[in-house]
Amino acid sequence: MIFFNPEYPVNPVKKIIFKSAKVLQKMKFTGNRALILGGSCDLAISLARRMIEAELFPILTYRNEKGREYISKNLKDCQKKYSSFYLEFGNRDSIDSLLHQTGDDIDFMVDFVQGNFESLVASADIEDVYSYFAENVSFRAEIVKRVARIMMKNKRGRLIFISSAAAKRPNPGQGFYVAAKLASEAIYKNLGIELGGHGITTVTLRPGYIDSGRGKKFIQDHSKEIIDKVPIKRALTKKEVAEAILFYLSNSAAGFNATEIPMDGGLTAGK
Amino acid sequence: MDILEEITEILAEILDIENHNISPETYLIRELGAESIDLLELAVAINSGFNIDVNDDEIFLRKLRDYITEAEQRNKNILQYLVKNLPFLSRKRLENIIADLEGGPTLKVKDLISYIEWQNHGT
């Protein structure tokens, strides 16, 4: 294997290979329109920007006016290169409204949505448990089903679920969060098993600590502790995660299906 | 193109079979060997081709035997119970289905047609 480090001088042969590598960097996609669930988080916006650069058309969902404004503010230089629609997990009518607006034209779906729910298992309010799973598992099953059927009409589609490294290694208090993540992973996995032969495939990414959104403050408060745990000795950047998602949507990653891929700098690999 | 012709065309493509093998009396599962993934594809194609909402459980009579068990447990008349729960099928067809249960899955092409007509009429 050849490793490149642009900081070091390279000989002419290596220069040629390096140039080829740059050409290879332009990813190819089968399709154009990408539905991004949970589109008002920083990671989703970062992904949308990267998609626009790659000539894809992101369709971001928001759950309230604040989310709509946040998307609009952060993508104000990308007018007409994306759209955004209302979708609130738990509100089943909002699926009809969303899919009515997107029409039968969805090639990709990236799912960032996950409500937060921290509680020790033995102390959880059981009503909250019921509603949490209804919103984060049952509702997701419904939208995955609806989008999969749209993709079946088009005979192609690629779906990526953004899970979490916690799915493998939860902390105390994350039982329900992780249970919902694992249940959702199973929905995506089975979809890829069932419809892979029909051109519809799925991948789950399990990012670890990301210096963005919900994780940012946690990382700031526990930076030394986190760095000690992660073999690469840093958190991931949102740009890195966006790039990885884009890669897994690309034709180059077509062989990945019905699987879960850790992206955590090695966090969950060791003890 | 009438409904039967369109269904025949869809089935021929999904199941990779010749058109002339299919009639309203053809059993989808018993004769054509349609599997669950084929039925899913069929539901999507019917939804798209006829522009109707398709409930997979209804159109493919998936709950037929559950309804019969429920009727027995509640001491209800089975035929009446099915008429209520499968409103797109005629009483005569339901009588035939009840008589045909031992032969295996009862779903026929004409049941799909009944469902599509029923949805088209919004009843």
Please characterize this protein's 3D structure.
The complex is a heterodimer of chains A (271) and B (123). With 271 residues, chain A is an alpha/beta fold. Chain A has helices at 12-24, 42-53, 65-74, 93-102, 126-154, 175-195, 213-221, 223-229, 238-249; strands at residues 33-37, 57-62, 83-86, 108-111, 157-162, 200-207, 259-263. Chain A has nine helices and seven strands, in the order αβαβαβαβαβαβαααβ. Chain A starts with 11 loop residues before the first helix and ends in an 8-residue tail after the last strand. Residues 1-10 of chain A have low confidence and may be disordered. With 123 residues, chain B is mainly alpha-helical. The longest helix of chain B has 15 residues, at 36-50. The model of chain B has no long low-confidence stretch (mean pLDDT 94). Classes of the chains: A alpha/beta (271), B mainly alpha (123). The A-B interface holds A 104, 149, 152-153, 194-195, 197-198 and B 37, 40-41, 43-45, 47-48.
The CATH topology annotation of chain A reads as Rossmann fold
Total beta strand runs of chain B: 0
User: Termini separation of chain B (Å)?
Assistant: 23 Å
Which structural class do you get from the secondary structure elements of chain B?
mainly alpha
| Uncertain residue segments of chain A | 1-10
Series of secondary-structure elements of chain B, N-terminal to C-terminal = HHHHHHH
Cα(first) to Cα(last) distance of chain A is: 28 Å
Radius of gyration of chain A: 19 Å
Percent of residues of chain A in helical segments? Answer: 40-55%
Report the mean per-residue pLDDT of chain A as an integer. Answer: 90
Give the number of domains of chain A. 1
H/E element sequence of chain A: HEHEHEHEHEHEHHHE
Residue share in helix of chain B: 55-70%
